[in-house]
Amino acid sequence: MPEQVLRYRIRPDGRVEELVEGMAGPACTALTAAIEARLGPVVSSVPTTDHYASSATTVLTDTVSSSANVHHVALQHGPH
Amino acid sequence: MSHFSTVRTELRDRESLLAALRDLGLDPKEGQAAVRGYRGQQEAADVVCLQDGASDIGFRWNAQAGHFDLVTDLDLWNRPAPIERFLSQLHQRYALQAILAGSASEGFQVSEQRTSQDGSIELVVTRWQD
Question: Whole-angstrom Cα distance, residue B37 to residue A68?
């Protein structure tokens, strides 16, 4: 029975970074779609490898840092 | 497959907007009401925060865009924070409220919430899969 984890970083200008852990396949996308529907358009979404069972911390850190670099390029305009 | 997403926050959900406005110390009223502006001119809005000065702060549902638009007289803006900062704060609080409401409705519980040094709110919600 895996634990499902949603991690959010809400920046001071309202931009949101979301990291989903512990969910496989369509369920992952469907779940966050319900939350994103209230929140706003998804600017970018990058699949992450599901290695959480063996080395969650390492994978998570790598994913956040590498993905964040990509996203910052696309998100200079803020929420308005 | 898990994923990492970035979302540009829009004011889409009425309840989350009301909660965010209250977080900022405002007292939003629901229902069609008038926002006061220059020389007593008025604009209709769906959510209104009455202000002490000559101008109020309102939000009107934009059905075409699917989100609320700000309705106020920018020339009479007299809150401590400039309008840009106010909107940023509002979007941050809105995002927090929308995520809390959305994740709670999916059975998630908050396991961590803190504000980092750069002013970002970091939130972790969890649940056990059936």
Answer: 42
pLDDT at B84: 94
Is any Cβ of chain A less than 8 angstroms from the Cβ of B9?
yes
How close B2 gets to chain A, by Cα (Å)? 5
A63 falls within a domain: yes
Range of B101's domain?
14-126
Structural domain contains residue B102? yes
Chain A residue numbers touching B128 (CB-CB < 8 A) = 1-4
- In chain B, the residue whose alpha carbon lies closest to the alpha carbon of A23 is B2
Count A/B contacts: CB-CB distance under 8 Å: 181
Domain count of chain B? 1
Mark yes or no for CB contact B2/A23 under 8 Å. Answer: yes
Domain count, chain A: 1
Of residues A3, A12, A38, nearest to B120 (C-beta): A12
With respect to residue B8, please indicate whether it lies within any of the assigned structural domains. no
**Tens-place pLDDT, residues B46-86:** 999 998 888 899 999 999 999 999 999 988 998 889 999 99
Write the ipTM.
0.90
CA angle, residues A6, B125, A31, in degrees to nearest 5: 50
The contacts found for B75-83 with CB under 8 angstroms, 24 or more apart, are: B75/B38, B76/B37, B76/B38, B78/B51, B78/B53, B79/B51
Residue type, B27: D
* Range(s) of the domain holding residue A51: 5-74
